[in-house]
Design brief:
It is a single chain. Strand 12 and strand 13 form a beta hairpin. With about 400 residues, the protein is an alpha/beta fold. Helix 4 runs parallel beside helix 5. The protein has 2 domains: about 300 residues, 3-Layer(aba) Sandwich (Arginase, Chain A), CATH 3.40.800.10; about 80 residues, no CATH class. The two termini are about 40 Å apart. It is about 30% helix and about 20% strand. It contains 12 helices and 14 strands.
Length: about 400
């Protein structure tokens, strides 16, 4: 597919290249679509950057369509770091006559990139674009896990049109459905209806309150490691650190915590697309929010460059296997620990007839804490929720 038809060039006006040294800035090494008819060659490219200037379904955040170029301004001033990844910037997706046209173009582009093992970093635009991102996996008939860093669940009401705060309902109700699990990181209870919390429990989805997450950021790593798609709403970051969002509030993640989550996403062998949404340059204080998102993207790239490629579905000899017997449960709980990275997984039983379908989902990323829970004769919560879906 010739995806260049969906893009318009990005402007690099005002960018100054660094001197010819080994410490080049990202703007010097990214192959960018900045001149018409000179679309980047994607052969051997690892990561691409995509801007989506779409905000027609933004809720209370008009102006976020201007984010892609604002973030690029700061991203390309950052030094590359110690990696030789091949990165391309494809420019901005043409804004369609209707929002459905934009969704279609976005879905087509992301599906093509993922099928060619290229990781897209999406700079929105409004977060309803996560729905179009999900549709790319649907197009590939790939069952996935979504992780959203968001102060709310973005459920909305069943009869509502899709917006940046109701897109998740559209994903859940989509048929045929290719969503295995949804995880929310950092929700703030006073923004969330109790019925929505109960619905998440009934669907065996994973939700983590802001305070719980911030008290132990290391536990975020296995959560993010289970994602195929990560959607980051900048309103999850406290207003003092990211003022460029009309829905920002006094509480949320600190900037350095947001960067830590982005790096965890980069480290995940499973994750194949990530999006950053809701930055509003019209409300930004001296570009602070755009600058922070640029640094988050830098940390994602740094994480990607340090991937261990140790998902345990193939080379079991590279893992230490632990068996834990729990009273009242017939089978032993199986854990794997990577010799390469010291990361942990749990192997959850699945019906043999469903094993081909859920090949990528019965090995659940976990932590040493989950192993300790099993040793204390208790089933880890992560294991139990996955078991409910698989059996």
């Amino acid at each position: 597919m010739d995806i260049d038809i969906y893009f318009e060039p990005v402007s690099f006006d005002g960018y100054k290249t660094t001197e010819e040294t080994d410490r080049k800035k990202l703007g010097d090494v990214v192959k960018a679509y900045y001149q018409k008819d000179k679309f980047p060659d994607l052969e051997n490219v690892d990561i691409v950057i995509i801007g989506v200037n779409e905000e027609r379904n933004a809720l209370n955040n008009s102006g976020c369509a201007l984010a892609p170029d604002s973030v690029r301004k700061y991203l390309y001033e950052l030094f590359r770091g110690g990696n030789n990844l091949k990165i391309a910037d494809l420019g901005n997706i043409h804004r369609g006559n209707t929002i459905e046209d934009t969704y279609f173009a976005f879905t087509s582009v992301v599906a093509e990139l993922i099928s060619n093992n290229i990781i897209p970093i999406i700079i929105g635009g409004s977060q309803d674009l996560t729905y179009a991102n999900y549709r790319a996996y649907e197009k590939l008939k790939q069952i996935i896990n979504i992780v959203a860093v968001d102060p709310i669940f973005d459920l909305g009401k069943k009869e509502e049109e899709i917006t940046s705060r109701s897109y998740l309902s559209k994903i859940i109700l989509q048929q045929p459905n290719f969503l295995f699990n949804y995880t929310n990181i950092g929700y703030q209870t006073y923004f969330v209806d109790q019925d929505a919390i109960e619905l998440m429990k009934n669907l065996f989805f994973d939700t983590y309150r802001l305070g719980t997450v911030r008290s132990n950021m290391e536990e975020v790593e296995p959560i993010v490691r289970n994602a195929d798609l990560l959607s980051f709403d900048v309103s999850a970051i406290r207003q003092s650190d990211a003022p460029g969002n009309k829905n920002a509030s006094p509480n949320g993640f600190y900037g350095e915590e947001a960067c830590q989550i982005a790096r965890y996403a980069g480290l995940s062998d499973k994750l194949s697309s990530i999006g950053f949404y809701e930055v509003n340059p019209q409300l930004d204080n001296n570009g602070q929010t755009a600058h922070l998102v640029a640094q988050m993207i830098w940390y994602f790239i740094d994480g990607f460059a340090n991937r261990k490629h140790d998902f345990p579905h193939k080379e079991k000899k590279e893992f230490i296997k632990y068996l834990v017997k729990i009273e009242g449960y017939n089978d032993e709980v199986v854990f794997y620990k990577s010799k390469k990275s010291n990361r942990w997984w749990m192997d959850v039983p699945v019906k043999s007839s469903l094993k081909p379908k859920y090949e990528r989902h019965h090995l659940i990323p976990c932590s040493y804490k989950d192993y300790q829970t099993a040793l204390e004769n208790d089933i880890p919560d992560r294991w139990w929720k996955a078991y409910q879906k698989l059996m």
